Structures are given as C-alpha cells and as structure tokens.
Amino acid sequence: MSIGVPSYHLKIRMTEDGHVTTVTIYNPEAKNACTGDMWVALGATFRDLAYSGTRAVVLTGAGGEFCAGADLSGGGSAPAPAEPAEHILPGMRVLADVVLAVHDCPVPVVAKVDGLCVGAGFGLALAADMIWCSERARFSAIFAKRGLSLDFGTSWLLRQRIGVHTAKEIAFTGRIISAPEALGLGLVNAVVPPDDLDGATLEIVSAIAGGPPVALSMTKRQLDNAAHASLAQALEAEALAQSVNVQTDDLREALVAYAERRPPNFSGR
C-alpha cells in the first residue's frame, strides 16, 4: 500500500504496517501537548489519510503519554489572552477543522492512550471511533481549572459518549478520571496493562483492517449519523449503502469464502 501522505510536521509522525497507519504525536518533552502548527499538521494528515487506501488508523502519543492538550507556549487551542487587535475566533475555527478531520475520517480510527489525556487531548481521543488505553491512562476535561469552557469538540463528543448528566459533572469539576473509571463510564473500550497496550490495539485494528473497507466506511457513517436521524432516515441510509455493497467485489469474495469455508480476503473494491 502506498498512501503518499507528506510529512507536515516533524512532531506529527506517521508509520505504515500493511493496511494499518499509525499517527503519533511526538512532543514528549511537553507530554505531547500540541502547538497550533502541530494541530494543523494533524488535521492535514487525517484529511489525506481519508483517501489514502489505508484501512485503519491508530492515533497515539510518544513517550508514554497521549496528549496534554494545547501547548500554550506555542499557539495551542486556547492561547493566553491576545492583544486587543487580535481575536482567537479564526484560530478556534481552524482547530474545529482538525476535530472534524479526525472524527469524520471515513477510515476507522482507534486512539491508543497511555498516560495523560487531558483538555484538547481528551477531545482528540474522543474524536476517534474507539479508545484502547493502559491502566495508567488518566483523562480530564480540565478546561474549568484553566478558567475556560469546553473546546476541541468535547462539549459534543463527551455528551455523545456518556450522556449529559455525567458529562456535566466531568466538565464542571475538571477532575482526573482513572482508566478503570473511564471504562466503567463508557469513555473507553478497553483497559489493559501498559505492556499489553500495543498488542491489544494491534489486535483490534488488524481485525478492522481485515474487513471490507467500503462496507465498514459506510457503517461508520451510519452509526455517526444515527444520533441525528430518525428511524426512517436510518433505514433509507441502510438501503442506499447496501445498494452499493452488493455491487462490490468484496461481497462476491465474502460469498465465495463462505462457500469454501475460509476467511474472506477483502480487496476494497
């Protein structure tokens, strides 16, 4: 597979392993806090990955931390008060595009979280489709403790994930949530020992990458859109999606593999 994604920033790194692409935030000296240009690079990377041919994406951080949110010393998502002639609204809208690039990526995205995952970093993990984390992962919508309201999509993503009442409690207090509590709340999919995190994440993304890419992409859209759709609209979307799936080589391969009692080998066509 050749995905042809350029290196936008030395601190946003990308590696390929078969049909799986790993995007790593590499700023370990700042616990992977992101400057403004790092956020922009991350968004650009995900926009290109959407059309790259990769089948699954792992989003993670370097050095035993996921992301400490915005690096306020370098132009992060909630910078220090600006000069009167300036306004942060345009920059915040740029960051909104980053959230959408991750959340709306048609390729399934799994966040692999070790260590700190707070503020905009928390929003980034929530923008992924699933979260696998280590036992030492720590989460927080820390904005209130910084004199800020929610940003980086957390006002929407957090409520969607766990419901409004629990989301308010987490947002109003800004408290740290341990990995076991995050699992109990439904914030994450799995918690494993730190030494097992790579293997556990590889297992799930390998299963995804082995599936039918076209069908899984449409399934992702269906589930994401269901929160805003009626049952009738969801049924229509299902009918349209299946009308595409029945024309694919992957459907024919699935039927042949079933008849031959072997796993299917999906091509994405």
Short description:
The chain is an alpha/beta fold and 269 residues long.
Structure in words:
- The structure is a single chain.
- By secondary structure, this protein is an alpha/beta fold.
- 43% of the residues lie in helices and 14% in strands.
- The strands form 2 sheets. It has a 6-stranded mixed beta sheet, with helices on both faces. Strands 5-7-8 form a 3-stranded mixed beta sheet.
- Helix 2 links the parallel strand 3 and strand 4 (109-113).
Task: Please describe the topology of this protein.
Blueprint: E1 12-17, E2 20-25, H1 36-49, E3 56-61, H2 89-103, E4 109-113, E5 116-118, H3 120-127, E6 130-134, E7 138-140, H4 154-162, H5 164-173, E8 177-178, H6 179-185, E9 190-192, H7 197-209, H8 213-225, H9 231-245, H10 249-259
Parallel strand pairs: 2-3, 3-4, 4-6, 5-7, 6-9
Antiparallel strand pairs: 1-2, 7-8
Helix pairs in contact: 1-2, 2-3, 3-4, 4-5, 8-9
Q: What would you report as the Rg, rounded to the nearest angstrom?
A: 19 Å
Give the H and E element order: EEHEHEEHEEHHEHEHHHH
The low-confidence runs, each spanning 5 or more residues with pLDDT under 50, are 1-8, 75-82
Count of helices? 10
Please give the largest β-sheet: 6 strands, mixed
Report the end-to-end length measured between terminal Cα atoms. 14 Å
Looking at CATH, the homologous superfamily of the largest domain is 2-enoyl-CoA Hydratase, Chain A, domain 1
Under CATH at level 1, the class of the largest domain stands as: Alpha Beta
